[in-house]
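Provenance and format

Records in this collection were gathered into a single text stream. Each protein contributes a sequence line and a token line. The two records reproduced below are adjacent in the stream.
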Amino acid sequence: MTTRYETNDSSLPLRRDVKSLGHILGEILVHHGGTELLDKVEKLRVMAKTLRNNFDQEIYNELKEEIVNLDPPMRKQVIRAFSIYFHLINAAESNHRIRRRREYQLQDNNIVQPASIESAILSLKDNEIGVETIQKVLNTLSLELVITAHPTEATKRSVIEIQKRIGNILKNLDNNMLTKRERKKLEDSLLNEVTILWQTDELRHRKPTVMDEVRNGLYYFDQTFFEVLPDIHQDLEEGLTEQFPGHKWEVPNFLRFGSWIGGDRDGNPNVTPEVTWETLEKQRELALKKYREALILAMKRFSQSTTRVEISTELIENVEKDEQIYLTEDKKWHVENEIYRRKIAVILTRLKEVGKSDIGYRSAEELLEDLYIIQRSVALHQPANQDLNMLKKLIRQVQLFGFHLATLDIRNHSGEHEAAITEILRKVKVAENYSELSEEEKLKTLESVLKDPRPLLLLNEDYTKETQQMIKVFTTIKKAHDTFGKKSILVYLVSMTQSASDLLEVLVLAKEAGIYRLHADGSVESHLNVAPLLETIDDLVAGPAIMETLFNMDVYRNHLKIHGDSQEIMLGYSDGSKDGGTLTANWKLYKAQLEIHHMAKRYNIGLKFFHGRGGSLGRGGGPLNRSILSQPAETLGDGVKITEQGEVLSARYLYEDIAYRSLEQATSTLLVASVNLSEDSEQQHLREKVWEEAMEEISAVSLKKYQSLVFEDPDFLTYFTEATPLNEVGELNIGSRPMKRKDRNRFEDLRAIPWVFAWTQSRQLIPAWYAAGTGLEEFASKSEENLKLLQRMYLEWPFFRSTIDNLQMALMKADITTAKEYTSLVKDKTIAERIFGNIVEEYEKTKEILLKISGDEELLDHTPNIKESVYRRNPYVDPLNFLQVELIKELRAQEEPNEELLTEVLLTISGIAAGLRNTG
């Protein structure tokens, strides 16, 4: 196996940082383990690197022998050394991303960074798009990102925070104006941080609770989102004003973050109504804290005196009135002519009492009105067109985050609702056994209940614990609406939606809690969106028919009218890929969107597609802007909603600069695509019928190939469970949610995250690429015209290009030589050789056809920075993989559990995850 890559000058500073951090790590290894530890790590590293550059069987055997002969104490230190090295590389690469962005900003004005806000605005200007068109698109633009607690972040929060501090030190070291003393101080700090990283336990010793996960999610709101989101809006507004100066631009709040953490009940018994309530309280607590911090800073800045500037009569009168109502004498600001400080003192007092007493603000809208009063007064004495940015930003923050901080989605499995409805309807003698009714009978029964204004639940009824819990979920939502506002919980997601009745059941439960009401005059009140989650291949195919059934029901259409005739639909990328392979799943997802979009258009119903993407390629992962571009163009006009899961949060949002870059890429992409759509509503030039026909044919062949292995090969599950660290992954304390939906050893009940995680660890990455090659190659081999068609699709169709690029990335991260090591874990060598032979054959076939389609000589030639990063990491991941295989063999041979061995295995899992920057 020979690999080569060319480095480019732009990566020189990165390589310098990596080398420097590696040197520091070497010093620490000597300090804690002596030269013997450093020499052993170096020997393994050099051998692995040599093998990567030019495979040699003798060196390969020597490397394996070195690993097998490692004594346990030394072995653990070696594992930690390689793992820590990846955390250092991750910090260095994050800083390099920030460095490259700053280099663009410091260059000549004619050079604009691709996919930036500036590039999007210049594109609109160059294409002579009118201001009316741009403003119209802005008014409907919508991008919602929803953070989830899916257990895919293997790195502890304390380690992530050390990484961030290291990255910030590297950033400061780039300053050419540093004095010798300042540089020495930073270098000492860097050594200290790397030392602390080495001395920190990288494994969690218990599973996080849901509230631990809530706190982790809130960390990103506190550290990043609160600052970056207003900046994106402000920079877009200022950029438009600069390029289109004759128009008074108003950029609505199109970019928001929501959350599932504390509301996602699907398969997680730990998410109780009480936990959901505590989550909402924590969210409000953080929002109020951030506003108080901003206002205390504003109070220091707003020292203007009524003897120096003109103050609005409105503000003066408002302050005098509010001081009498809300402030005791000891809380008043006693410098009478500092009117702004007097007003801020009132606001701070009222913020402190939110949710506690009558003097507290009842809503964020009341706070906004006070801020608008200040803003109108400031306009009287500020220079023309020079708004006070601090105040403007605070107003935008309150508009974006309110008192609820983030809308919390509630999610639950359809079977849970059906079980509760079955018991309730039996108790009130509406249906003896609702769950056994036909779908048509279910719909008639539910429609009848929804059309009856009388409540269904009986007082003091002795329901089962499960049904009582389900009822409490909905009464908690009602209480949240009354306490935190309607925006606190807007959407209820139904996992495993397989029929129209699955959605109506939720409406019935909402009706019983008073969230959905039918008044005596026939009018409807509905304060909760109900969204299906289409996950499996079968559900995606059935999706259009399910929704059309609902759109034809008066009771459901009346519900939709309350929500602006708009329906949210969530698409699951994980289970579809697990059922049918990544290529088929992605095509079925794309096709389902098109079919539902066109069907809904006939009913004059707007749609918002919610993309349940994971961080890994096997679960729909990839750059945020590329995810947006890969959707059918005609669906973008209704807005985009995407999950941001686990490791994605730290990768994208740990640093403000990287968070800004990721969000501006998404904003730029969505803005330009939406404007193009408004200019040509059909977008026919972006997709040809023959392309869709080709994908249909390719998908069918790929699905057959995938299922022939995963579902039809009787030995596949044996191979999967033995040739991957699946069971060991289950011991890693990275999430509050169980690994399986039910306590059964069925493939169907295994969650997609451990499915992907285990394959990633073993470097086979089957969920991210397997069977795609057979589908593509069989189509291309039929004629030369077919191959040319695929090449043109790659150049002209964003969906297909994204698919091919992600497949290339998956093959790049997979490694057949390393993966072969894991076949030694399979007890039946015949099974191991046969199935692994199948995998190798498909890998080579996939690689060959991808290169033909893309025109690249090697994988990822079109993205040299990513390619270089993968090559940089591979020689250091390999020893961890070899160590993992040997440790698992030893662990599985033990008759009694061996905690020390398990800890070492978990350390390799954590290290490989850090090295590949992927888990599940």
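Adjacent record:
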Amino acid sequence: MVSTESAQTHTAWYAQDADAVVAATASDRQSGLTAGEADERRRRHGPNEIASEPGPSAWAIALAQLKDLMNLMLVAVAIVSVVIDEVPTAIIVAALVVLNVVLGTRQELKARASVDALAKMQTPQVRVTRDGTLLQLAATVLVPGDIVQLEAGDVVPADGRLLTSATLETQEAALTGESAPVPKDTRTLGAADVPLGDRSNMVFQNTSVTRGTATMVVTETGMHTQMGQIASMLSAVAPSKSPLQRELNSLTKVLGIIAWTAVALIVILGVIRGQSLTTVLLLGISMGVSAIPTGLPTFVQAMLAFGARQLAEAKAVVKNLTDVETLGATSAINSDKTGTLTMNQMTVRSLYFHGRWYTVDGEGYNKTGRITQTAGEETPDFTLLAYGLCLDSDATVSDTGDIVGDPTEAALVVLAAKIGVDAPLTRRTYPRVAEVPFDSAYKFMATFHHLQVDGSTEFVELVKGGPDVVLARCSAAYLPGRRAVPLDDVREELTAANRELSEKGLRVLAFAARRLDGQEDSAAADPMSFVEDLTFVGMVGIIDPLRPEAIDAVRTAHAAGIEVRMITGDHAITASAIGAELGLGPGAIGGPELQAMTDEDLTAALPRLHVFGRVTPQDKLRLADIMQRSGAVVAMTGDAVNDAAALKKADIGVAMGSGSEVTKQAGKMVLTDDNFGTLITAIRLGRNIYEKIVSYIRYQMSKLFSLVLLFLVASIFDINDGVALTPLMVLFQHFFITLFPVAVIMLDPAPPDLMNKPPRDPHTPIANRTAFVQWLAYGVLQFAVTLAAMLLAPGDMSTTEASVPMTTAFVVLSLGSILAGLVMRRDPESGLTPPILGALKILSIPVVVTVFAVEIGFLQDLLMTTSLTGGQWLACLGWSLIIPVVVEAEKALRRRRHARPTTPISAAVAVDPQRAR
């Protein structure tokens, strides 16, 4: 027996004769394998199924979340709090850690199930020959060497080499991305490097048979099939962290260094002063709670969840919250064509009939639409063409747009409906007397009918096929008025018309007819012999049309500085024409040329390439990888299985809602309306959410810096025994005061010029030098105001009982935080410009909470605050107002400095590093 090991995956079966393939798989055309041979091969190769990708357990994910640096710092604070009997502080901090871990684990548990989805796509039953008997078996029991029967409507159960075929066509869009069904035949291909989409004597797992019948010998099963290789690529692609995750991790490290350096300094100073261990630890945890942004993970999660809800309302569903922000950083979109930029519905766009041009409108398989012509021309009689459209095809199209059969023939049926002809009724009225079925070997179809022509019944032959093939069998052509002239008189015009349609990326079909009165018996006996001496009727140009919103979406993306490229399995000429219609940009390349380029050459050529045709799943994966290595944040859109690995590799994989389950599981976002324009809306929302996160971090970091400085100065100069505020005061500020300014930031509307700026540089962290200086400056401002208010407040300061100075510091810090949130919600724009009423309503709540914290008894006992007089409250308000005044003045100076008389507002904003952040 000839071995059929896994190396078969790399065998060019399409370059071998069918009998040689049967021999290589040690099988038999007539009897197939024996049951014993099949069992032995199944033990060797395994079942014909896609292996599942094991996922991490919930506990493993939770443990990984707990190891996050931010959470580890909070755990340390909670432990020390218990040691020094600060139990309320320990409980609150521990609850925060649990909340962070639960939220993070919940998101991670939505991990990809792409390979599982691939496994579910297996065909349940197949017709296979075993021991000379045709049996119906489960697809999972197939092995290399099995002889399988296929017919229209079947899903191919494994990869195989065709042994016989009759008018076979398969729909391979799920694998190659090509819209039109692919003709198949058994002829051996000479070359050994034929692209996947051109392997016309092979059929592939999980593609569908749209026409004809065939017998195949199974060459690969399970993970060795083309689908299995996609699954392997999918498993090999490790999920990457989003830009925001990477930036927050970087920021957390910076904060950790600042926090623990400050804690160490305070502890050292306490020891030098001879303070007790309890006091020193209290100082340490007070400093730690002040310096660690305890609410940062929770608040960022809340803001991302808010963004996710906005996206869902816009019909874009994200699986992980951090992907919301990734959208905003998108700098390149690699879009599949079929079903993404196009409607995945073959449609006739142009008609060349009796020597004249006509335009066909209408979308997809909707039967409404018009056929328009040049003014002044006579209304044509489309009867002969309508016969060909209806009778020379087998597809059916319902009034709701559902099709059965070949999509290209469905487009012809829809064109007939636009002419005013009902295909089912026409077929019942004029049944076929004889036919020559379509076959890829001769590339035409002919049917014979008794038809009504010019008021009488005639026996007519109708032919449909490729223009070159049909013209080669014609001797005449019709001109307006159905006047026949010798073909040579108009051959040049017909050739030019075919070329014009092809250059537009249209699939061209030609129609011809022949009158055969009195030859019914001869035609029925040998119909092929009558496919000659035809009269040319016309040509139609068919295309998978662009989605109406796709052109505007591409234009918006370009204005936003986002490169859009189309990557498809279609031929390069078709892809290039569609790319030009979309306005993608210059440069088109085919799969073989792409594969011949080195990574360095491709990287250098990418700025000049915007259309990629005849690509493989590996090509899509490679393109995403090269673009990412070049610094781009890549979004990849797609709806077919062949897109899945690239979607998982991309920074933001965007699946279409009507696409395969595999693709939806591999993607990080699903567009429920299949609308490419929705992706641009999602990017706009993503940018807005990132702007809000930056505003929040600016606000949060300014507050943290003010607290760090306050505690450091209090410790160094022994103010209030080194404790400016109690730990619970700080936690109260984090949870009950800053929450509301954050809400104001979240609800602030997006700036109108958001999509007129280039994408932010993902390599520039949130904690860049310019931003860090701004945070520190705003923090110093808040610290200075709070310290001044505390030092100038009447009364003694003590950490063992409530005091007016500490309460004043608490109130000024609270009111200052509230007002800071109002003005910091926008940068460099003023925070005092409309809309502002809604923000003031929200900010009134923490003002009331601050009053309660100072004036209500049980909160006084918990926080160690004391009541203030009316004059003291006014003083606190006066101190607090200094903060928004200074911040607004600084932003005004910055706006003036960056303003340029000849520079558009959007450009000026884009130059501003603070706006970019």
